[in-house]
Design a protein that fits this description.
- This protein is an alpha/beta fold and about 375 residues long.
- The chain has a single domain, classed as Aldolase class I (TIM Barrel, Alpha-Beta Barrel), CATH 3.20.20.
- The chain is built from 13 helices and twelve strands.
- It has a ten-stranded mixed β-sheet. The chain has a two-stranded antiparallel sheet with strand order 6-7.
- Strand 1, helix 3 and strand 2 form a beta-alpha-beta unit.
- The mean pLDDT is about 95.
Length: about 375
């Protein structure tokens, strides 16, 4: 790999985004976001017990016509990257294929976070236009997948998803990722179940499928605080990742760890204090859902963080009139935020004479 896909601070210094980065660093309203998370729908075909968006599911979607308009408005606003995510399952919306085509043909970078069950129906568009597709797997076997990611009838669709990933791996232009969220659950009878023992097997499978990377993450609670795990579980995960790295990591396959896993290793605790009162990253990245436009994905569904209604309002109008400073990170964002260090860097950019290194853009997903 030629870059660290999780190094969000370095990505701020890319040339094409620099003018808006300077706006945000100065504390001024930006002319538009660089990256948008877009939930086409809140519907999902799985019934994952630990889903952090469980309370927000199955509550609406954009019409195909409005979703197509939104794609045009994102292009109009010179957005550089769009992540199709949820909420629900983004590929479950029949209008998503058109969004992929419209954005892709306009040169907008596209990321897709999916459960993988509907990759085959969207294969042509995903293979041609997606910069990356990350599949939430959280298991290395069909049995464990069925425990943590059952469909609505309680069945495991593990084999179907693996087959879909193999199809995409064979034709993709962008990257394909296998995401593993380390989870534990206490059952009603008091027994504990976990998927942590399958990290190594899942990484092996990811390599075999033809994925470009395998990402391990820690679990959040409903308030986005990182859930702490026992030392023996964390040790087991680290040992498995080290062995997977030794055996399989090369120029075509990367083992990466999210900032949440690093947080667990450093035992920093569930709370991430912040001493700044405005999130400058909110000027550069925002969330659009059928229930509203929010300052960021961590506040999906939070009425106090809503800045507009994309069902009835044009995105450029929402951006022009809204105040992205309605959330105070000191008070409202004491959870783990992947862009905390980016906010600190924006403060540095505001006070020091720093400029981007000469070079080209490599990854707009700040």
């Amino acid at each position: 790999m030629t870059f660290d896909r999780l190094d969000l601070v370095s990505k701020l210094y890319q040339p094409s985004g620099w003018p808006r980065v300077l706006e945000a660093a100065a504390g001024a309203p930006s002319t538009g976001p660089l990256v948008v998370d877009l939930d086409p729908t809140t519907f999902c075909d799985l019934a994952c017990p630990e889903c952090i968006s469980g309370k927000l599911l199955n509550q609406g979607r954009f019409t195909p016509e409005r979703l197509a308009e939104l794609a045009g408005e994102l292009i109009e606003m010179s957005v550089r990257g769009v992540v199709l995510i949820g909420g629900g399952e983004p590929l479950a919306h029949r209008g998503t294929r058109q969004v992929l085509r419209t954005l892709g043909e306009a040169g907008v970078a596209i990321g897709v976070v999916t459960n993988g069950t509907m990759i085959q129906q969207n294969l042509d568009e995903l293979s041609q236009y997606a910069s990356w597709v990350r599949v939430s797997m959280d298991a290395g076997t069909r049995e464990t997948y069925g425990v943590f990611r059952p469909d609505r009838k309680g069945r495991s669709v593990f084999d179907k998803v693996v087959g879909n990933m193999r199809l995409l791996a064979g034709v993709k232009k962008g990257a394909l990722g296998y995401s593993f969220l380390v989870m534990t659950r206490r059952e009603p009878d008091g027994t504990m179940v976990s998927n942590h023992h399958e990290v190594f097997e899942a990484a092996r499978l990811a390599k075999d499928i033809g994925c470009d990377y395998f990402e391990t993450k820690a679990m959040f609670d409903d308030g986005h605080h990182v859930i702490q795990v026992a030392d023996e579980i964390l040790g087991s995960v680290d040992d498995q990742l080290a062995e997977a790295e030794r055996l399989w990591a090369d120029d075509s396959f990367e083992i990466i760890n999210s900032s949440t896993l690093t947080s667990l290793r450093n035992r920093v605790g569930a709370v991430q204090p912040k001493d700044y009162h405005r999130c400058k990253v909110a000027e550069l990245r925002t969330l659009i859902t059928p229930s509203g436009v929010y300052v960021c994905s961590y506040h999906r569904g939070n009425s106090q963080a809503k800045i507009g209604d994309a069902v009835t309002e044009r995105l450029p109008d929402i951006w022009e009139k809204s105040d992205r400073g309605i959330i105070d990170p000191t008070r409202d964002c004491r959870f783990h935020c992947a862009r905390h260090r980016s906010n600190l860097e924006l403060d540095k950019i505001a006070t020091e004479a720093v400029t981007p290194e000469p070079g080209s853009d490599y990854d707009p997903f700040i």
